[in-house]
Amino acid sequence: MICLVLTIFANLFPAAPGAAQERTFLAVKPDGVQRRLVGEVVRRFERKGFKLVALKLVQASEELLREHYAELRGRPFFGRLIEYMRSGPVVAMVWQGLDVVRASRMLIGATDPADASPGTIRGDFCVEVGKNVIHGSDSLESARQEIALWFRADELLCWEDSFGHWLHE
Ligand code: ADP
Fold first, then answer.
1. Cα of 112 to ligand 1 centre, how many Å?
2. Could you give the 3-state DSSP secondary structure of residue 22?
3. Of residues 92, 68, 94, the one with CA closest to residue 81
4. Closest residue by Cα to residue 96 from 7, 32, 23
């Protein structure tokens, strides 16, 4: 009975058409770039079925990083975190797709690689929280802010995706 009600509900109120348009901000951190993990990260997000809408190699300024990590300003590791993120180029990206913010966090794994499950990026490629290879937005609101901080609007490409029919109902 519950299944029947849920099925009827799902048919009456299908996923919002904009749901597959959700976007998130990802960055391969300097250790990930140095360790040649950019291709591996891109491969995992492509393979999952997400769509790349922006990508660039950036030497981030201290000002940008302080704003990006503003919420962590009071934490004891804040200074080290800014230095780490300034220690080399990062690959900044925007990815789009159904529930992409939440799904990205699953693909990335827990903040501390020691807690990250095998099969996740942090679980597979790193051992220490201070060198955890990748950043991914943790909410829709932070995704919106981070995309606006790292990219100009004209750097985000809207391109026709002939693949979407094979991913979504
Ligand atoms: P996440 O990156 O998983 O969203 P947080 O927003 O809590 O996690 O932290 C931002 C980044 O700060 C982490 O990815 C990591 O690089 C760094 N960090 C977090 N906790 C520590 C810590 N205890 N020591 C050193 N660096 C840390």
1. 7
2. coil
3. 68
4. 23
**Separation of 6 CA from ligand 1 center, angstroms?**
39
pLDDT value of position 168 = 83
Residue with tokens 């360790």: 35
For the cut 70, the answer to whether the pLDDT of residue 10 exceeds it is no
The Cα diameter of the chain in Å comes to: 58
Closest among 74, 109, 108, 96 to 140, alpha carbons compared: 96
- Provide the token pair at 15: 């996923």
How far is the C-alpha of 94 from the C-alpha of 87, rounded, in Å? 22
168 noted as active-site residue: no
Contact 126, 113 (CB under 8 A): yes
Nearest residue by C-alpha to atom 5 in ligand 1: 111
DSSP 129: T
- At 130, list the tokens: 């201070």
**Packed helices 38-48 and 100-108: angle between N→C axes, nearest 10 degrees:** 130
Q: What pLDDT digit, counting tens, does each position of 48-78 carry?
A: 999 999 999 999 999 999 999 999 999 999 9
**pLDDT at residue 160 in the model:** 87
What integer pLDDT is reported at residue 161 of this predicted model? 84
User: Cα–Cα distances in Å, from 44 out to 14, 80, 115, 123, 129?
Assistant: 28, 28, 20, 13, 21
Whole-model pTM? 0.90
